[in-house]
Amino acid sequence: MPKGADGQDVLIAGVYEPDSLDGLSQTIDKRDIKFEQLLASFRSSVPTFSGDVKKDHLSARNWIRLIVKWRRQVLGGIENLLFIEEIRHLLSGSAKEVIGYTVYDQPAEILSTIQHEFPHVQFQRELVKLIESGEAFVNSDGSELMARLDRYIAELEDSTFGIIAISEAIQELFPNYWEFLDMPESNISSADLIASTQKIRRRLYTNRKARATPFGKMITSAKAKSVVSKVAEDAKKVSVSAGKASEKTASPSNKKSQRRVKDKSALHQILDLLTKQAAAAPKPEAGPASTSPKGKD
After folding, report:
1. Dihedrals φ, ψ of 9, to 5°?
2. Dihedral Cα 35, 36, 37, 39, nearest 10 deg
3. Is the pTM value of this prediction over 0.70?
């Protein structure tokens, strides 16, 4: 952290306008927050980037835009090399491998490398495939699903195929709401999609029981999850049954029964031994016959 002449921590001066970052101005005032706190806010607000569409749901282009916004509006006082290290810490997977141990002097250099290696057009193609198959919405429902829709609209706003894919996905996800959205039959724009998601969000808020209708790989994933859950539940039942059987074996009443069996076995052994000893003992010999005197007449 930068130090003043007296050795005290230096606060970063404020250089950004209110509401320049969505929601950030409500929680951060750079005149009162220290250097570490600003970096901590940066790390928690900017997601990691791997270059994998399925994991990130965010293109390199918009990820870089978010970082540049932080750099210009919040972290203007941070040194270049330190900011480059902060960017490295946000990389994972293929993106981290692409950067490797290459030395960069300016943040623009490392960001340009990422932009070049993960072009936006390629990202859009992969995202459209995920949306059409339903995989882009797997493990999402309610507010998370709506957040993904908003994110995908922002990523595909300049793609005709992307706009079509999202509009068809909305019809699949919310078939009962489609007629209330007043969507044009042709030439649907990103603004139309944004308006539709806002209407759907309001209906979901007022009707807590409303749910999106899964389609494509959303259904497959749900079935697989159900099977895994059932297997885990069966395994748990078997484990509980085995535990109860073990407890029953170790119960006091069962121990008494085991002792009675052992006592009976020992008694039988003693009786058998006595019987064998009696059989082996010598029998007494018979003596001469005694005669009684006969009386005289």
Report:
1. -65, 135
2. 90
3. no
